[in-house]
Amino acid sequence: ETFGYEKANTEFVCSYIEQLDAFPDESFDVVVSNCVVNLSPDKAAVLREVYRVLKPGGEMYFSDIYSNKRMPKELMEMRCCGENVSLERCIGMTF
């Protein structure tokens, strides 16, 4: 879709956010992350990579989950993509 522009100027890319090696420096105006940063084991690498690929004045938009408590080991070891974890199971855990 062109969103009113003469040609498309939007591209959605699926990648690991801490490994954006396929993209050159300063190649994006905007980086959008929807609940991805919290899944990365190396959050500093996430910020370095996003900063590297953003053009000067570029912006990062993200929504994420934050906890001010350490998560239980059982929850931290769950795989997010290979296992269906219900909201009830997460809410029912004791911290």
Write the SSE topology:
Elements: E1 28-34, H1 43-53, E2 54-63, H2 73-76, H3 87-91
Parallel strand pairs: 1-2
Q: Globular, elongated, flat, extended or rod-shaped: what is the shape?
A: elongated
Sheet with the most strands: spatial strand order: 1-2
Please summarize the sheet with the most strands: 2 strands, parallel
**Beta strand %:** 15-25%
Which stretches of 5+ consecutive residues score pLDDT under 50? none
How would you summarize what this structure contains?
The chain is α+β, with helices and mostly antiparallel strands and 95 residues long. Helices cover 21% and strands 18% of the residues.
What does this structure look like?
The protein is of the alpha+beta class. Helix content is 21%, strand content 18%. The protein is built from three helices and two strands. A two-stranded parallel sheet has the order 1-2. The longest helix is centred in the middle third of the chain and has 11 residues, at 43-53. The radius of gyration is 17 Å and the shape is elongated. The mean pLDDT is 78.
